[in-house]
Design brief:
mainly alpha, MetI-like fold
């Protein structure tokens, strides 16, 4: 027993990772200082890469004038709506195809056939069907989120412990009760992994859609600034996209810690 306890303690120590918050902050600060220094001494012309202070100054001016709020608000509406629709649809399809054999026989070949298609290539077709307005942009984002969610949820459902399923059935649980109380909790880690993948895909498709068929949004801002060679505004758009990516990852990680606490106990 003592040997087993020592082995379990060693395994927990091996799996536990140090936070290294100061190292993370220091690495980011060092990168910004190096960037600022390169632009100040003239090694990199400001036209090619504006300084961090210049980008922050431009960001403040755009926020004060309301220009940045308009673009950011338009992007967030499309992003949140498309992400929500794609995530819900992906979870439903993943659970159904993972739990019901007939649904798996029908759904898996269709997912395998359509998943490799670049979703942005479908945007012209979606514009033809739904028009140049918001529905086509939301639809392409939802499609991009749907596939990682469906595939990851399916994998999570298939990895559920069959002993737990049999125990639930033995105690009189019906199919939907088994799905709600056994299958979904078991699949939560994979579902959150799909959400993180979907969030990154959603940002990529958002920018692409706004560059092709939009008159507002961060993607439109980046494209317009690039066309007129305003690299400072272009960098403001890129920084906003980076912050959106960091924020989405942080929110999903916090949500995972709340929904799946047993995965994060030391």
């Amino acid at each position: 027993m003592a040997v087993e306890r020592v082995a379990a303690r060693d395994r927990a120590a091996f799996l536990r990772r140090a936070d290294h918050r100061l190292l993370r902050v220091g690495a980011l600060a060092g990168l910004l200082v190096l960037w600022e220094a390169l632009t100040r001494v003239g090694i990199i012309p400001a036209l090619f890469l504006p300084s961090p202070l210049g980008v922050i100054r431009e960001l403040g001016e755009m926020a004060a004038s309301g220009q940045l709020i308009v673009h950011l608000g338009a992007s967030l509406r499309r992003l949140l709506l498309g992400f929500a629709l794609g995530a819900v649809a992906g979870v439903v399809v993943g659970v159904v195809t993972g739990f019901f054999s007939r649904a798996e026989a029908v759904g898996q070949p269709l997912i395998a056939a359509t998943f490799p298609i670049p979703k942005i290539a479908l945007l012209p077709l979606l514009i033809l069907w739904l028009g140049l307005g918001e529905p086509s942009k939301v639809a392409v984002i939802a499609l991009g989120v749907f596939f990682p969610m469906a595939i990851n949820t399916y994998a999570g459902v298939r990895e559920a412990d069959p002993l737990l399923v049999r125990a639930a059935v033995a105690f009189g649980a019906g199919r939907w009760s088994v799905i709600r109380k056994v299958i979904l909790p078991s699949a939560l880690p994979m579902i959150f992994a799909g959400l993180k993948l979907g969030a990154g895909t959603a940002l990529l498709l958002l920018v692409a859609a706004e560059m092709i068929a939009a008159d507002s949004g961060i993607g439109f801002l980046v494209l317009h600034a690039g066309n007129i060679m305003d690299t400072t505004k272009l960098m403001v758009g890129i920084v906003c996209l980076s912050l959106l990516g960091v924020l989405s990852h942080w929110l999903l990680t916090r949500g995972e810690r709340l929904a799946v606490p047993w995965r994060h106990t030391s």
